Amino acid sequence: MKTRVKWVDNAMFLGESGSGHSVVMDGPEDHGGRNLGVRPMEMLLLGLGGCTSFDVMSILRKQRLDVTDCVADIDAERADAVPAVFTKIHVHFTVTGRSLKESAVERAVKLSAEKYCSASIMLEQGGVEITHSYTVAEAE
């Protein structure tokens, strides 16, 4: 897997993925940026959220469950000192569908956290405390 990050100007960078997609990263105005893109550390959390969401949905789809929506809300805490690494991350899933079994959602979240999500497992091995929770909602 390869990516490239190219400096644009000031605190703005263009991230280019090996699969041909691009994303703008920018810093806040008080750090020379113009606030026109996500921060690099936010990008890390987005990657974690995408990785674990992909797993959860893949597991639920294999069970042929009628999922209509899946949202991962991620809250993170960072160290006060430099480097301001993540110290705690909490991922809360809201999975909506028709006649979903809570046990199936619980299992999918647990499998992602403990076996499949490379991003969260890598961060945990680096000392980040990661917790997960979920809510199951009935679709209208």
Fraction of residues in helices?
25-40%
Distance between the termini: 41 Å
Order of helices and strands: EEEHEEHHE
Radius of gyration: 17 Å
Briefly note the CATH topology name of the largest domain.
Answer: GMP Synthetase, Chain A, domain 3
Number of helices: 3
What's the shape? globular
Tally of separate domains = 2
Mean pLDDT: 96
Structural class: alpha+beta
> What about the largest sheet?
3 strands, antiparallel
The CATH superfamily of the largest domain is identified as: K homology (KH) domain
Task: Identify the CATH architecture of the largest domain.
Answer: 2-Layer Sandwich
CATH level 1 name of the largest domain: Alpha Beta
Organism: Thalassolituus maritimus
Pfam family, one: OsmC
InterPro entries: KH_dom-like_a/b (IPR015946), OsmC/Ohr_fam (IPR003718), OsmC/Ohrsf (IPR036102)
Protein name: Putative redox protein
General description of the model:
- It comes from Thalassolituus maritimus.
- This is Putative redox protein.
- It is a single chain.
- The protein is α+β, with helices and mostly antiparallel strands and 140 residues long.
- It folds into 2 domains: 1-38, N-terminal domain of TfIIb (Single Sheet); 40-138, K homology (KH) domain (GMP Synthetase, Chain A, domain 3), CATH 3.30.300.20.
- 33% of the residues lie in helices and 38% in strands.
- The strands form 2 sheets. It has a 3-stranded antiparallel sheet, with no helix packed on it.
- The N and C termini lie far apart (41 Å).
- The mean pLDDT is 96.
